[in-house]
Amino acid sequence: MLKAGVLGAGHLGKIHLKLLNQSEKYELIGFFDADKENAKKVADEFGYKMFDNLDELIAAADMVDVVTPTLSHFEVAKKVISAGKHLFIEKPITNTFKEAEELIALAKKHGVKGQVGHVERFNPAFQAVVDRIENPMFIEAHRLAEFNPRGTDVPVVLDLMIHDIDAVLSVVKSEVKKINASGVSVISDTPDIANARIEFENGCVANLTASRISMKNMRKSRFFQRDAYISVDFLEKVCEVVKMKDAPEDPDDFAMILQNAEGVKKQIYFDNPSVSPNNAILEELESFAEAIHNDSEPVVTMAQAAKALKIANQVIENFDL
Fold this sequence. Notes:
Blueprint: E1 2-7, H1 11-22, E2 26-32, H2 36-46, H3 54-60, E3 63-66, H4 73-82, E4 86-90, H5 97-110, E5 114-117, H6 124-129, E6 138-144, H7 156-171, E7 176-184, E8 193-200, E9 205-211, E10 218-225, E11 228-233, E12 238-246, E13 256-259, E14 265-270, H8 280-294, H9 302-317
Parallel strand pairs: 1-2, 1-3, 3-4, 4-5, 6-9
Antiparallel strand pairs: 6-10, 7-8, 8-9, 10-11, 11-12, 12-14, 13-14
Helix pairs in contact: 4-5, 5-9, 7-9
């Protein structure tokens, strides 16, 4: 079993602590939190070992799980990697693309693996259809959240939209050609609502909207491709696949048939895969353990996360404020 230490015991950090503690692939050795009062409270309540400083935690671990505010990611990740320890780090990987590039180079130098917590890749609804998303040409995503002050240290693009940027980049096999974006600050110093139109070299267009001051939560994406429409509800963990094929000459009475102006007939049918419930955070953490054991590439590499961060920062730079 890999010895795992957690850096950060806030809301998400406590979830990671609980899951690592119950995982059969890790031995949780404890955690470090710079907030001594919070650290003592977590240690007393849950019984996890509290380390007095970060260096002691890193020295005792095989893998360090970084669940701290984004602005601290770079410095602590450098310490973890330089010590020769594997790194799991929450999204976004760092605050800037330059910092991410430095971490990638450092990990290569020290021969350690890194995975980034883009957890929606492990959402069971997305996993159920990702193999059916083939050359999408139009993608629309809405990620809306009720206001929570925990995420306002970064723009909504880095807090919420980056999930959809990463998901889009994972299925669109083309480079980004052009970005148009707009953002509005309502309650924070940085935009709380943002929209981005991302055009790819192959002609695909992704229209992404994110808001952290919505009246309700929503996390939906729709993928349109030749003869197919695929929708994913990341929040409700359901998906739908609507496909078209050439209509038979003698369709049955219940067949859904469309006919275009040229007289070509297509039959619409549903091909919905089953969604297997999972704990996405536990699965991403355990997939990283598998990558370490098998010396294979993590599901979400630091390079992939860096690319998502680069596009997210380009969205922010293109805001028409």
